[in-house]
Amino acid sequence: MKGEHRTSNERASVGFSLRRLKALCWKETLQIFRDPSSNLIAFVLPLVLIFVFGYGINLDTPVLRIGLLNEASGTEADGFAKALQGTPSMEIRHYEDRKSLETDITHSQIRGFVIIPEDFSRLMKQQSDTAPLQVVADGSEPNTAQFVGAYINGVWQTWMMQRAQDRGEELKREFSLEARYWYNPSANSRNFLIPGSITVIMTVIGALLTSLVVAREWERGTMEALLASPITRTEFLLSKIIPYYILGMVSLAMCVAAARFIMGVPFRGGPPALFVTGSFFLLSVLGIGLAISTATKNQFNAAQAALNAAFLPAMMLSGFIYEISSMPAFLRGVTHLIPARYFVSSIQTIFQVGSPWKVLMPDILFLMGSAAFFLGLTARLTKRRME
Amino acid sequence: MPDAATGEVVIRFEGVTKTFKGMESPALESVTGEMRTGVITGLVGPDGAGKTTLLRLIAGLMEPDSGKIETLGYDPIVNAGAIRGEVGYMPQKFGLYEDLTVMENLTLQADLRHVTGKEREESFERLLTFTDLKRFTGRFAGKLSGGMKQKLGLACALLGKPKLLLLDEPGVGVDPISRRELWGMVEDLVNQGIGVVWSTAYLDEAELCGTTVVLNEGKLLFTGTPREIAEPLVGRCLQLREPGEKKRRLLTKALSRPEVSDGTIQGHSLRLTFRKGCERFDPKEIGAADGAEWVEVKPRFEDAFIDLLGGGPSGESVLAAHTHQIDQDGATVIEATHLTKQFGDFKATDDVTFQVTRGEIYGLLGPNGAGKSTTFKMMCGLLVPTGGTAKVVGLDLRHSGSQARQKLGYMAQKFSLYGNLSVMENLEFFSGIYGLTGKRQREKTTEMAEIFHLKPFLNAKTDSLSLGYKQRLALACSVMHEPDILFLDEPTSGVDPVTRREFWTHINGLVERGVTVMVTTHFMDEAEYCDRIGLVFRGQLIANGTPDELKESVATQENPDPTMEDAFIELVTGKEEPK
Fold it and tell me: Which of A94, A288, A318, B449 could form a disulfide with B454 if both were Cys (CB 3.0 to 4.6 A apart)?
């Protein structure tokens, strides 16, 4: 009897044990599904994010509501008014007096207005330098004001050329521009925003969720019980990586499916490229999250640190929304240290171009390196004792 | 039960020192001793004494700065693997996963220790029967009561049949009944030959241990059996029965006599410890009533502990001397009527009714989680009752909050001081929010610093103070505006017995001045200071009366002189029987 229990104890304290690892992973999985905050981060937040990024953010030029007051009477003025109305990027509202124009622009009902003056036809005939039109834009939103100016100017130019042609006069312009966008022919911002947003979602699952899990064990006093049990450091670390890796990859697959089939973003690359880049990126952010969690031992601090160290850089510095080439040199340098940057560039390539391994290789190599670095750091920070 | 000296030595430690970064004094300072099988070894001391550190060193969870430790014959750092297989360790808060069920917790621990197959079936059967948790295997650990968590923690620690069991404060957060049950279980284990170390801050718990290792501020104070520690006090502990009405004033007088080293109030009686070789004096000399008589009582662990530290504090409260006298008008100043608080489908406070008259100490007594704090917070207007009313000086705190609060002093659980402000800044802040300004504020803060011996620390960060000093500062902050009514929520939790004595000296002094005090505590013996107490259990007020009344109500032939804890257990089990 005595001998028997001795052997069972000896068996328990031998190095790596698959049984212990399985038990720890199963515990972790149960906790993910049962803990309300884990649930929120793992399942609700990614859905919210993909819909916010998919439908909420749009970098395409908007349709502007413009007021129009036509004080002139005559075919020329009517012709120009019709040209304005025929532009798909503007919604024209007609006004009868200047006062209501002013009221509506101060209440942001319209973004700008055009007044065709009484003497429009006379001014046109004179061909003087003074513009025969008055254009006012709401300068409180400078970007929109720029658009208003540019749109109306564009309509004006086209209308003038059309008018000259009709009269048989010589064309002033000798060429015209026709844009053609490669890889994203419709130049739809959603097609690159959604793949980019998957990066942010993976960062949330990888870093924010895992930043809480080791800290939670310390806070709730369960770490002490684990340390007093025969588990090894490797078992502990793997039990914190494997379940979250699987969760993150499932989430990646779901996001890609949602992008492809619900939002209609073209997916030209192959699953292998997605799997390889996704895996290394996920391991990098898991490493960041776990390193933070292990170092802070406090859930609140860990969440704060994860937001600052992983989530915000993934949003701001990955090139997903803000173009890296337009950043100041210093920040451009910083972006090279951010794993999200490499994943944004490769996932956008995979979605829009395909799987050109040669192009993806530098990104993959960097992501491999950062995964090794952050996981190695976590392993260094993880102590088998309480100090 | 085998004698302490005959068991097998399972732990030996010699000259063990451990210092933590940022702490002025070491957590443990050259501590030496041994622990054996055959008895429960109590590792005794107030919070911050170094109990947990010593247990962690024994379990190999930390490395000592210097000194030698041997656990089951192994060096706990070098042979960590061997120790983990043979030592069962139950940390504070029991180390359970609250979002796993009882069965899932057990299965996890069994897998971690490679308890499999038939051995596992047998262990589960044995442990679940032993801990009486069979009915609850599907329940989440977080939904268990303190007592059941404690049993599950024990079951987990016992998987893999350890030879040594280390229990870190298993009695905290657990009601007295569960505590007694656990004690019985652990005694069973000791009889099976397992070595058991039970750490505790409760000195009444220490009294039950087979042998003890007593720590204070990182230093070894004593090792030996509770009988040995109390030995020098035999004949020196006396109770003065029927001393008359003014028991608090009598205690002050008694403590000022040179013969007396320590004293407390016990219901209607005084309990005094005499200095070595001193004779008892005539009770009339301190103004006791005619019928007063001395009765020799058995010295307790706490008496011995205080004696080892050189006796208790003097009975004079400087704080009381600086407080204005409040007229004794016999009015009801605190009143709860059918007070109920419901959180979801859980009634934290269930139809509680009581009154407190001016100049009384009223205590709410009960284990953690019984509903004391909820009731308490409704009384001082921090929680809105679901039903019933809570009135203080005739005002409903829900409607006339700030007016009533000016008359209240409130000392929160865990003290709620600003840890990163200095002591002076805390004093200034709390006097400020109660409307003290200018010269009066300066006078009052200096006065408090003097009364509570805070002068050397005025510029120190509050976080760096010891628990005892934090408690003093918290009391200072709550009485600066000289409130008529003082609310104290677990004011002495974890604090060493000498500081506790000092604390009660101040409270007694204030009450003499006419201040009304309402206090919650889970220290059964502390209830003896109260004029009247309400026993709270599972949200209900199960008994209400003077300490002596409650104790007498459960006196039997076998137990003619029950303790407060006996009374509590008796009253609770009496309550449970009908169902």
Answer: B449
Min CA distance, B287 vs chain A (Å)? Answer: 53
Q: Are A88 and A227 in contact (CB under 8 A)?
A: no
Q: Are residues B217 and B274 in the same domain?
A: no
Do residues A121 and A80 lie in contact, with contact meaning Cβ atoms separated by under 8 Å?
Answer: no
Domain count, chain B: 3
Task: Say which of A23, A222, A224 has its CB closest to residue B61.
Answer: A224
CATH of A64-163, one of 3.40.1710.10, 3.40.50.1220, 3.40.50.720, 3.40.140.20: 3.40.1710.10
Q: Find which of B53, B61, B62, B114 to mutate to test the A interface (most A CBs within 10 Å of its CB).
A: B114
Query: Which run of H or of E encompasses B17?
Result: strand B9-18
A19–B116 CB contact, under 8 Å = yes
Nearest CA in chain A to B162: A9
Answer whether B160 sits within 8 Å of A386, measured CB to CB: no
pLDDT at residue number A4 = 40
Q: Looking at the structure, do residues B70 and B214 belong to the same domain, yes or no? A: yes
Among A188-192, B297-301, B442-446, the least confident range: A188-192
Asked whether residue B499 is assigned to any structural domain, the reply reads no
- Evaluate whether residue B351 is within a structural domain: no
Global pTM?
Answer: 0.80
Which of B450, B480, B510 marks a domain boundary?
A: B480
For residue B567, give every residue at least 6 positions away whose Cβ sits within 8 Å of its Cβ, in sequence order, or none. Answer: B550, B551, B553, B554
- Length of chain A equals 387
Tell me the per-residue pLDDT of B15-39, one tens digit each, with 9 for 90 and over.
Answer: 999 998 877 788 999 999 999 999 9
Domain range enclosing B280: 230-316
pLDDT tens by residue, B552-567: 888 888 888 888 888 8
Closest residue by Cα to residue B494 from B458, B456, B467, B521: B467
The CA distance from A231 to the nearest CA of chain B, in Å, is 6
